[in-house]
Predict the 3D structure of the following.
Amino acid sequence: MVFKKNNKISSINQRKSTNRSVPGSFGRLQYLQNLVNEYQQTEITEHKEQILANLANFCYDSRNGPQLRQLRVIDLFFDCILEPSSAWFKAGKFNYIYIYI
């Protein structure tokens, strides 16, 4: 049995992958900086939790580690560990570990 590759699906996947910032790129660093700035400026708890979750997602890819360290994202997670309220404590605790793995 022979499987043919669907060109339409291939071109969509190729387009998706080219639109993303490569870990370690300036675009990725700028995006992370914008998230950190937004986290520091917002007063709404739910927004802070969402931003923290977005930053946490970047911790799973070790290639993002240098940018996360440069932006001192670890300090945001560390602050969450010191203030055990709502979901921040759990998210901060586990993401602190991922940045340094």
Observations:
- The two ends are 44 Å apart (CA to CA).
- Residues 9-17 have pLDDT under 50 and may be disordered.
- Helices lie at 7-19, 26-41, 45-59, 65-70, 73-82, 86-99.
- Residues 25-99 form one domain.
